[in-house]
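Support reply, case 0932

Customer input (verbatim):
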Amino acid sequence: MIETTNSPSPQPVSDEDIERLYRQYGNDVLRVSYFYLGNREQAEDVTQDVFVRLIENRPALKPGSEKSWLLKVALNRCRDLWRSSWHKRVLLGSKKLEIIPDDDKLDDRLEKEALMQAVNALPPAEKEVFLLFYYQGLSTQETAQVLDVPEGTVSSRLSRGRQKLRQYLNGGDHHDEA
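Our regenerated output:
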């Protein structure tokens, strides 16, 4: 039995869609990339790569899933850069933390920087969940879709990450292997 639906199948993104998606989500891709990498130039390169891939691949995206696709591609590219030996050699030793401003509720810049440093100190899996859930405002379901993990895994990583952040911000050892 063949199931038919009234909704049309997704069409490959058009030039107009690409322009709209860039205007709508370009800053989100840049912020996530920057926060993940801690380097403005690399974040800009990742953002450019994401939209070049969108242009080259012309995926058929369901309406409402475009941001998830863009963030997933950005995180994959950030992971690739993070793993590269150049990144480890050149950037991991850097103490400088630059911030792309975002409208959030933390008024005190020092508190904001401490929080961002604490999130950056989390293991990559937990850091990615924090970036998507708290910084991008995705739900646990949307975060799970972007990362291709079950919702329970997202919840567990959020819980472990919050515990590690509390320890870090209270002056405890944030490198414990619990």
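We compared this against your earlier run and they match. Two observations from our side: Residues 89-107, 174-178 have pLDDT under 50 and may be disordered. The two ends are 50 Å apart (CA to CA). Please reopen the case if you see a mismatch on your end.
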